[in-house]
Amino acid sequence: MIELNWGSPLTLHSTDGTEINAISTIEQARYWLEANWPTTGAARDTALSQIDAAMDCLLPVSSARAAFVSAASVAGFSPADKVQHLPAAR
After folding, report:
1. What is the pLDDT of residues 2-32, one digit of tens each?
2. pTM (whole model) above 0.90
């Protein structure tokens, strides 16, 4: 099976401490949405359909990635590069 690279790996964090590490292919994103996603709803369904369309070469992979990030936001996740870290206590 050939995996579709979708750019730099994406790591997501939630406010409850859950982390999804280094999703680097569209297939990994699809797996997370189907098997491990904490919520259901329109954003998740849209991300799955966008991913399927990208896997069938009907949409750009960047559109599927954006839909995945949007679904992640709805589920309470933020990309690791957008997580604000508090300064360490002195």
Report:
1. 677 788 899 998 878 878 888 989 999 999 9
2. no
CB-based contact 5:16 (threshold 8 Å): no
Residue 43 C-beta-side C-alpha neighbours within 13 Å: 16
Q: Which of 6, 2, 19 is nearest to 68 (CA)?
A: 6
Diameter of the chain measured on Cα atoms: 53
- Which residues, 6+ apart, have CB-to-CB distance to 90 below 8 Å? none
Distance from C-alpha of 90 to C-alpha of 81, rounded to nearest angstrom: 24
- Please list the residues that pair with 55 across neighbouring strands: none
- CA 89 vs. chain centroid, Å, equals 31
| Distance, CA of 30 to CA of 82 (rounded, Å) | 22
